[in-house]
Design brief:
Blueprint: H1 7-21, H2 26-31, E1 37-44, E2 48-49, H3 53-63, E3 68-71, E4 78-79, E5 84-91, H4 92-123, E6 129-131, H5 141-150, E7 164-166, H6 168-174, H7 177-187, E8 194-198, H8 204-210, E9 214-218, H9 222-235, E10 240-244, E11 262-264, H10 267-270, E12 277-281
Parallel strand pairs: 6-11, 7-8, 8-9, 9-10, 10-11
Antiparallel strand pairs: 1-5, 1-12, 2-4, 3-5
Helix pairs in contact: 1-3, 1-4, 3-4, 4-5, 7-8
């Protein structure tokens, strides 16, 4: 799966390299000459889903355009402990200068992909799709959302301008649900859906009457979801239904049987840990 990265991601990579190399690398510079070359492989230390190969390539290209990265798999592929992810060849000083930055990106993004893969398997097959949120690491959003896709998940909004979602603070500040929905629908063009966050069952009738296109059931129990979906399908069957709030991998297997369309899970990005990947010297 090939996913292009934004200029913001390129700038992030540059910042990460500056962070590590602002004062050079006196260790490698003392031991090796500019003529020394090396070959090494990125190797999985645990089962994982790969994400970030193009980021690793960008790390090394920004350091030294003569470095060659040869992938042994694609983003989205599963790797077992001991499997090679990619091979890197180039000037020893350059490869060692980029090692930690490359591993930081690859381990973090593969961690997001791996956790997403685990959650998608827990949710199982069916109509409901697993989606992420905007709860991403500042500056990393494009990369983390790509990693979610590499793990088999789907992206929710990339940014505030990517759709209209009316949440509790919008409703409170606007003076009510109907007022908020009407104002958004007056401004939004015909291709934009309007999603409304519902905190309790008592809000549903007004949200349906006011014309929401998507309803997010926030922090509903499964029993409450069943009650809410019956009302929504009876009144407006075309409305899309999203579950959100406190989602865990343990709860996911029970959700596919519900009459819903999406499960949004902030933990796909903010709760994922970095996986263990190493760079092993060959020659």
């Amino acid at each position: 799966m090939v996913i292009s990265y934004s200029p913001e991601s390129t700038a992030l990579i540059r910042l990460a390299l500056q962070e590590d190399l602002a004062h050079g690398d006196p260790t490698s510079e003392a031991i090796f000459s500019s003529a020394d070359r090396m070959k090494a492989v990125f190797r999985a230390r645990e089962p994982l889903s790969v994400s970030g190969i193009d980021v690793v390539r960008s790390v090394f290209q920004q350091l030294d355009s003569d470095i060659v990265l040869t992938p042994h798999c694609q983003d989205g592929d599963r790797r077992d402990p001991g499997d090679v992810i990619a091979e890197v060849t180039g000037a020893t000083i350059s490869v060692l200068a980029g090692e930690r930055t490359a591993l930081n990106f690859l381990s973090r993004l593969s961690g997001v992909a791996s956790y997403t893969w685990r959650c998608c398997r827990a949710l199982g097959s069916g109509r409901a799709r697993l989606v992420d949120t905007r709860k991403t690491t500042p500056g990393w959003r494009g990369l983390e959302k790509a990693a979610v896709r590499h793990g088999g998940g789907t992206n929710h909004r990339r940014h505030l301008g990517d759709g209209c979602m009316i949440k509790d603070n919008h409703i409170a500040a606007a003076g009510g649900i109907t007022a908020a929905i009407q104002k958004v629908k007056q401004q939004a063009h015909h291709l934009i859906r309007v999603e409304v966050e519902v905190d309790h069952f008592g809000q549903l009738a007004e949200v349906l009457e006011a014309g929401a296109d998507v309803i997010m059931l926030d922090n509903f129990t499964n029993d409450e979801v069943e009650q809410a979906t019956r009302l929504i399908r009876a009144e407006r069957p075309e409305v899309l239904i999203e579950l959100s709030g406190g989602m865990t991998v343990e709860r996911l297997p029970s959700l596919q049987a519900l009459d819903i369309d999406f499960v949004s899970m902030g933990a796909l990005t903010h709760g994922a840990r970095s996986v263990d990947i190493g760079l092993d010297f060959l020659t």
